[in-house]
Amino acid sequence: MRVLKEFPFAKVLVLGLAKSGTAVAKLLSRNGVKVIANDLKASEDDENVQSLQSQGISVIVGEHPLSLLEDVDAIIKNPGIPYENILIDQAVKNRIPVLTEIELIPYFDINQTVGITGSNGKTTTTTLIYEMFKKADSPVSLAGNIGHVASEVAEQMHDKQTMIAELSSFQLLGISTFKPNIAVLLNLFEAHLDYHHTLEQYHNAKANIFKNQTEHDYLVYNADDQRILNMIKNASSNLVPFSRKEVVSNGTYCDEKAIYFRGEKVIELASIVLVGEHNLENILAAISVAKIEGISNQVIETVLTTFTGVSHRLQFVKDVNGRKFYNDSKATNILATTKALSAFNQPIILLAGGLDRGNEFDDLLPYMSNVKALVLFGETTQKLRKIGEASGIENLEMVDTMKEAVQKAYQLSNEEDVVLLSPACASWDQYKTFEERGNMFMESVHKL
């Protein structure tokens, strides 16, 4: 187990427990830091609270008393807690550092970190890079926003291991010294403005991924994204571009047949299992990192010819009598479904519907040209039916269960068709999570 080295704070307030807060509080305490934990919504009976208290950590629940700031050197907060929080707001005014737990990573003195961020595609790219390292027998750990508390992972890492970390704008906003040896910047769209308030502040948070990098580090970036091109002008890193639109001699690019790195052919496009233009960008980014690390084309090809996608994100499920089934249950909004529909040139039977959040679905209309049938469920059935009618789709079916939806979709399909679950809605009207919805879809497909 690694220990914190030269950590500059003797007393830390951990704000927000949940998974990362509880882990960080215990980690700091193990390393001799005095810890106070605070959570507004927790109660004394909560398992996390009792676990911390059993280890001698002071826990304050149900309120945010400003007195907690009187004798702390820093705050490490849950990434989702906004800066308008009364304690955070006052801490900023008092010039108390407000950090997120990824700021602990440099103090564990680990071998190397690859950090991936962007508005879309982080999880897929992070997973691809991880799989390439693993297949190359390179010691590697997965961490960050992908579900593994980064500082907790760092504490357990061995010498020569590389951390592959998915990093959100919320996490990156709370850093001071952290820097990845290889940073990956995928794309920038308008997102999380309820948290960051302005597009500029959102972009600034993302830019933190390379702000501490030097000429000894690498920045892999999307050369097709003008917002990114504007952002990286003052970067000190070695710049490695990727593009699906043009040849970038110092990076990774493609033509209609293959992907290349600095002029060297890496893999035929036809060999790649993962579909969609957005996934092509993720693949180009992952290849860039792999080639920087000297991973062979053979290893890259092995991963890309077998990797069917992250669970519930345009995930290939099964070929049933020539019909290809894809699980995109993570598509809980219209934008995600438009990307899924754009990924295919074949006829599509689209399974959609779910929680009604009050919005209409007109933005789907330009992407419905390949949809030959709609199978609808959930609260938004009638709204989506109108979109189907406006698109001239004759086969419009409404069902009550996912099992019915899959059976009906199969009946409406022919060989070479794609059956796509991409709901454009949250799942909470019928399922606890989008994962539960996706699992039910996959189970129904396997029972066909």
UniProtKB/TrEMBL annotation:
Keywords: ATP-binding, Cell cycle, Cell division, Cell shape, Cell wall biogenesis/degradation, Cytoplasm, Ligase, Nucleotide-binding, Peptidoglycan synthesis. The keyword Ligase applies. Residues 116-290 form the Mur ligase central domain. One of its GO terms (molecular function) is ATP binding. InterPro entries: Mur-like_cat_sf, Mur_ligase_C, Mur_ligase_C_dom_sf, Mur_ligase_cen, MurD. It is found in: Cytoplasm. It comes from the Bacteria. Its main location: cytoplasm. Pathway: Cell wall biogenesis; peptidoglycan biosynthesis. It catalyses: UDP-N-acetyl-alpha-D-muramoyl-L-alanine + D-glutamate + ATP = UDP-N-acetyl-alpha-D-muramoyl-L-alanyl-D-glutamate + ADP + phosphate + H(+). One of its GO terms (cellular component) is cytoplasm. ATP binds at G118, S119, N120, G121, K122, T123, T124. Its EC number is 6.3.2.9. Transmembrane segments: none annotated. GO terms for biological process: cell division; cell wall organization; peptidoglycan biosynthetic process; regulation of cell shape. Residues 312-425 form the Mur ligase C-terminal domain. Belongs to the MurCDEF family. Cell wall formation. Catalyzes the addition of glutamate to the nucleotide precursor UDP-N-acetylmuramoyl-L-alanine (UMA). This is UDP-N-acetylmuramoylalanine--D-glutamate ligase. It comes from Gracilibacillus orientalis.
